[in-house]
Amino acid sequence: MPKPNPSKAEQQSNIDEELENSKSSEITSTKSHGEILKQQIIDGQETYNKNAISILLSSLTAGLEIGFSYLLICSLFFFLQGKVEEDTIIKLLSVVYPVGFIMIILGQSILFTEQTSLLTLPVLNKKRSFRSLLKLWGLVISGNLIGGYLIAFLLVWIGPHLGIFNLLTVEKIAVHVTHYDNSVIFVSAILAGWLMGLLSWLIAASKSTLSRIVLIFMITAVLSFTGLHHSIVGNVEVFAGWISSSAITFVDYLSFILLALLGNALGGAIFVALLKYRAFVYDVKG
Fold first, then answer.
1. What is the DSSP string of 149-218?
2. In what way does this protein cross or attach to the membrane (predicted)?
3. Residue pLDDT, tens place only, 70-80
4. Into how many domains does the chain fold?
5. Hey, which of 80, 119, 144, 152 has its CA 20 to 30 A from 276?
6. Distance from C-alpha of 111 to C-alpha of 244, rounded to nearest angstrom
7. pLDDT for residue 14
8. Residue 161 belongs to domain with CATH number
9. Spatial CA neighbour of 212 closest among 126, 98, 53
10. Each residue of 188-207: pLDDT tens digit?
11. 3-class SS of residue 103
């Protein structure tokens, strides 16, 4: 006689029990899929449990800190201009692009793209509601964007005064980010969100600070070298262009940031959180 299908409550209980019992491989000392997933859900839950002001301030800090990537991008672009072909300079920017991400992730500030899949997992695991996810995303995005605005104003002023870059450099970088069709920016942002969600997963799997730095550098350098659109770095790049050049309009900025945020969210939530979680669930069911 065939066994009756378990109820949804029983299925969820089985998933939670399997997560609780997940352990590292005794042979390789590497974390199992279940252990990484459990750690991600716990980390995500910790963020949900934080005070709203704390989340906003941590997100604001991340928005400010990502400005150090932009500072180095502009400085290197300006330094190499006239010495190296411009398309080569764009590729070389990937060497300095990861700096802000390393500061943010190791310093545990809250960056939207790095937290997207992390915050989605407790919802998939039925520990949090979809409404609470949207509310938390709203806080994180607000903090990241405001921090980006503040650092953009500061860098657009200080760069020319220090002589490390000029406003033409700011304009060229902003135009380079936005000159694509909307569909290209959207799909590019999905891929960027996918990579950033994967980065969050890989960091949870790593056990040393050095390996985490290597992973952050590797993933974010890929983003820069291939020109994939990251909403929070791009926010600083395009906003700085808008406030300092007529080549970037408010419509250009608004269109870019909406497409980049949506694409990054979909990439992290669907291609990392959902697929990683469902792979574990089907393994439990099997």
1. HHHHHHHHHHHHHHTS--HHHHHHHHHHHH-S-HHHHHHHHHHHHHHHHHHHHHHHH--SHHHHHHHHHH
2. Multi-pass membrane protein
3. 999 999 999 99
4. 1
5. 144
6. 26
7. 56
8. 1.20.1080.10
9. 98
10. 999 999 999 999 999 999 98
11. helix
